[in-house]
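Question thread 4412

I'm putting together a teaching handout and wanted feedback from people who do this every day. The idea is simple: show students a protein as raw sequence, then show them the structure tokens that encode its fold, then repeat with a second protein so they can compare. Below is the first pair exactly as I plan to print it.
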Amino acid sequence: MHNKFGLDKLSFTRLINEALRRGGDFADIYFQYSINSEIIIQEDIVKNTSNSIALGVGIRVIDGEKTGYAFTNDLSWEKLIETAETASIIANSNSKIKIKGLNKHTVSLNLYDYKRNLVENSIKTQINLLRKAYESAKNFSPLIEKVSANLSSSITYITIANSEGLIISDSRPQVRIMVSSTANNGKTKTTATANNGGRYNIDFYLSQFTPEQIGKQASEEAIILLDARNAPMGEIPVVLDSSESGVMIHEAIGHPLELDSIRNKTSVMWDKLGQLVANSNVTIYDNPNISGFRGSYNIDDEGMTPNDTLLVENGKLVGFMNDYLNAKLMNQERNAHGRRQSYRYPPIPRMSNTILASGNYNPTEIIESVKYGILAKSFQGGMVNSTGKFTFSINLGYLIEDGKISSPIKNATLIGSNLEILKRIEMVGNDTQFFLGTCGKNGQSVPVTCGTPTLKISQMTVGGCNE
């Protein structure tokens, strides 16, 4: 248990019993201590540096379908008792659970090394690292007009205790370098971004993926876009490149398979369990226990050790991502997808690392199978509504003509519905890559990763501009 909170097992036990004083089925306590840093370099200077510390506790009481939640950043005993009392107000059941003590559990996974975390390095070390990314982007070409580079890093210590007798702690690092490059050739101005990071320490940027690579990647795409044509419009085959297309899987299929949307019947998938929802060559899973990934965790925010969760197997819908409350109400086995932004929020079912499994095709074979279509390389963003309909904006794409990649294209929008597109995935590549993101839901943001190999969709609506 982290001594940063100044509480022992007896104090945790007393707090849980106080939270359950009016009744309730379950109570838990989430303590968090975070150190966060952000650095921004623009116009050749360090424009901004910020450091912050977050320290607080959230207390939750569940009584049937009702949830009481309260939080505080005042860790005095009087305030902690008051927070527990506030969370307990929703409970009025006759069942009076009382726990006698907590059993300390040790984390069985070891997915990240927090001992050389970047945020606790000197500010000079962090600036020097970020400047390498900035200079690499700026010096890529004389046509690069503007560069913005951002480094965010953090370390978060948590301790979770609950009325089932659990007490467990974790220490979570997080780093990310993002670079935005703008190119200008006098006629056209274009912008592209690149980023990389995860639950790594400083060694990641020294040996695995350098800041220089991130800067070059952003500027390279911005330069290519200068010569890009407007995209064609119509119903045509679309190949999703493996580099960033995971974001489509995340949005179009990930959110509809979080169990709260299934329970509330707001998901288009709420009644599809056991049915074919995709082509038989499609298998999708969410796996929080991949070493170093941005969306990974040794325990979820309810203290449970995660496993790989199969969602779609050979086209059939076989599972959902859940947390304690929704798993209980839906009579499902828990699978450790209860996540929260911070101690200020209760946990809800969330994705972690959502991946469409590799297939058997070489990416070149997939391109060669398309007579006329487009390759979607990078994305600006997307939106999906509860009916499963989505729009995604392509930042950089390419025309495919007679089985070969030809001109770069821009101003393309992919339009469709998740059930329709999943069934139209005709070929699945063997070249899975991963894309880092921050996922928003119910006012909460959490770090995630999404991944796909190269995919061929037999037909998709592309909105663009006719030249």
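The second pair follows. I'd like the answer to focus on this one:
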Amino acid sequence: MDKLDYSIINLLNENARKSYRQMAKELDVSMSTISNRIRKMEEEEIIKGYIPLIDPQKVGYDLLAVIGMRISHGKMIKVQDKISKTPEVISVYDITGEWDSIIVVRFRNRRELNKFIKWITSMEFVERTYTQIVLNVVKEEVKVPVPG
């Protein structure tokens, strides 16, 4: 991948419905270059698909939380796999430091969050959790930094 590929990805992240003509004009390259680059990135699964960017609050999901989990040694993948299958879970991460895994979840209200936390704390191999509620999202981007 070169700078042009990263620039194309960022334009698609801003608006996946942007035309090849518009992208070519913005990046000062031909439409066939844009088309060929996108097709190649799709074939290599760098671009895995195109999805609408939904405003979670407008569809009733006002509560965003980050939950740290301490998981019994050797059981992280089993626990993460089970948790990742729930629809409220946005992200699941392996991390370094005090916690073994971090999950990011969205709910309509505190009652749903409370039920979810009780569910994960009752799971076998989950030793401890730490929950933080996000008060305000200052920045949330999907851009890929263009290399120097």
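Top answer:
Good format. For the second protein you could add a caption like this: The beta strands are 63-71, 89-94, 101-107, 126-134. DSSP finds five helices and four strands in the chain.
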